[in-house]
Structures are given as structure tokens and as C-alpha cells.
Amino acid sequence: MDKRFLTPAETAGAIVAAGERVLTQPLSRTLVLSLLAGFYIAFGAELATVVTSDAATHLGLGVSRLLGGSVFSLGLMLVVVCGAELFTGNSLLAKAALHGRIPWGKLAENWGVVILGNLAGSLFFAWLMTETGLWQNGRIGEHAVGIAAVKCQLDFWPAFVRGILCNWLVCLAVFMATAARDIISKILACYVPIMAFVASGFEHNVANMYFIPAGLFIDLALGQQTNGLTWGNFFIGNLLPVTLGNIVGGVVFVSFAYWFVHLRGTKAE
What we know:
- The protein has a single domain (26-262), classed as Glycerol uptake facilitator protein (Up-down Bundle), CATH 1.20.1080.10.
- The protein is mainly alpha-helical.
- It has 13 helices and no strands.
- The protein has helices at residues 8-19, 21-24, 27-52, 55-59, 61-72, 74-83, 94-98, 104-132, 139-152, 156-179, 183-200, 205-222, 231-262.
């Protein structure tokens, strides 16, 4: 009988099996798929910027965050359904390394290529949005710069913890989408956790690869310098702690947890 979804144990096994692709997948394919993931997350991020630009004024902050999270979830839906390599989601591949199916070195290689591809895709998309001329002079552009500036002003520890909480939810979304057997279930599995992390104010490194450069590019186009919004604060002040937090959230609280519960002590085939 065709099952409508996989059990948690079956899902953990499916993720381990899927992780073996890093052993044979050409780096060129990984790079292209990671570029696509950067584009897809940026689509969700720019849409969230538009939707939340004035929503808080009319509907209140909570509803504005709910709407922003709802449309931002488009990014992971595209990654999961269309296929792409997203750094945060690839934290789940640690389960395959824990189970002895792939070497930790190959996992590190995958993460390195994917994060660089995600960054390149996000930067290119942020530049494209600047070139559209849609945001330079208006409320949406001001909002985009404001989002970027706030993220650059975060201290290391809060950014790190928000990164943990974010990727905990992102990896649970990917876990549930892997368990789902039909397209509607996969979309719903992506929507709820992603909406929750955005509405809660958690930090996602690939999303920030779009949000912060978008603000920087708008500043450049307008010939202005927003306080605290610099490339140094982007890479060191935000991206570094958020990425470390994302790794902890995905590897410890999802990959290790479900490997320990369902796969520890079983034979790695």
C-alpha cells in the first residue's frame, strides 16, 4: 500500500541515503544548485520586504511579521520542490556523516561549495533588485535599508542564538518535507516552520546574504551611508555568528537528535 508519509525513523533513513549524493555529485552540479538556492531564498526575502514595508502601520507588528513569514516561505518551497542546495538545509547531511555513510571531509567540502554558491546567488539577486529601480526612492527601499541596518547592529551572542533557533526550524521543515509524499504536503511542511522563524525574528544566514547586501546596494545607488551598515558588519558582525548558530541548530538539535533516537546502534549499510 502506498504510504502518504514516512515515519520519523524512515525519514531519518531517507535523509542519510540522500546524503550519499555528496560522494558522487560533481562540484559543478553542486555549485549550480547552490546558486539556485541563493536565488530562491532571495525571491522570498524580497517579497517579504515588499509585504512588510507598511503592514505594521496598518495591521500591527505581529500581523506584519506573520505576513512576512508567510511569503518568505516561498524560498524554501522552491528549494524543496524544484531542487536546490541550501546551506542551512544541508546541515541535515551531518546525519549521514554521523551514521558513517559519508566522510566528514566530504560533508565539509559540500558545505564550503554550497555556502559560497548561496552567497554568490544572493548577491547577484540583490544587485538585480537594485537595477530594477523599484526600490531606490520610496518606502520599500527605506524598509530594505532599515532591515539591513538592524541586522548589522546585532551583537554576536544574540545573533548566534537566533541562528540556532532559526535553523532548528528550517531543518525540521526539510525533515517534514522529506517525510511528505505529495506536493501539497511538502509545501505545507515548508510553510509553517519557515513562517514561524521569520515571525519570531530568528536569523538565517542565506536570507541575510540577500537582506544586508540589498540595503548596501541601495545605499550605494543613493550615495548615502546608513549608520552601521557596512560590508565588515555584514560578514563579521552578522554572517559569522548567524552561520555558526545555524550549524549548531541544524546539526545538534535535528541531525544528531534524530540520528541518536532512530539510527544510533544500527548498521551503516
